[in-house]
Predict the structure.
Amino acid sequence: MRLIFGLLFSSFTFGQSIAIVSNLDTTQGFIGDVFLWTVKVEGQKDESVQFPNLGDLSDTLSIRNESLIHENGKLVGIQFEIMAWDTGLFVTPDFDVHILKVDGTIDFSLSTIPIRFFVRSILVLAENPKFRPMKGPIPVKGIFPIKTVILSLILLTMLGSIIWIWKQRREIQYQKVDYLIMESPEDRAKRRLGELNESGLSKNYYADLSHISREYIETKYFVRALEMTTEEINEFRSLFPLEDGLFSDWAQFLSEADKVKYAREIPTSEKMSADKEKISSFISQV
């Protein structure tokens, strides 16, 4: 139930009546509740009033906030937010309102009579008044955001690294091919034949010899002979515009070269020279 108590004091000065009204918004509450205590001046005309600060009250009673009340641009009252930190009977503190003269000095003061109010514990309303189990600590954010600063530094470092790498890149310089000095398929094949080393491994010798003949056919007739096996070359005979005799000799050489490359067959030096002449003659006749 909300109760309001008012105390009225009258003073007669220059034929005028001034009254002090003091009230609480409620006279009952619990520990930690806010009691609104209002002190107002009524009957004020041209007089100026002054409401002093209360300051600290006691360990069990404190003022959380105080605010002045203005009406029609004139100071008429003050409101205090009182909080009690213990149970029992309390009274509002002594408070004087100063009525000022024209020059700002105190003419006289009016005092309020204390108002009683009761404070109870919330445990009175609880079904189980025993102490409740303690809760664990609540995480609190630190004053300095270390995690945010570290993540920001990492992000800036990554961004700086990306910019640095981007600036280090080199533009590709394209060089136009001079087709006037390009070798013809036949010239390239003959040059490579002249560079063959018969004193090396026979496996490498026949691998180069086979590659020279395949590359020549591929660049001359635009058939992917380099990507085809010997069996595929025989299977797709129709793709190669060669005479039957030339194609048979070439296919037989490729088969013998495969034996040297993969079956470890060892040819004689005379055989190696003869096969080189055979490929040279094949290139000239195609």
User: Anything to note?
Assistant: The mean pLDDT is 84.
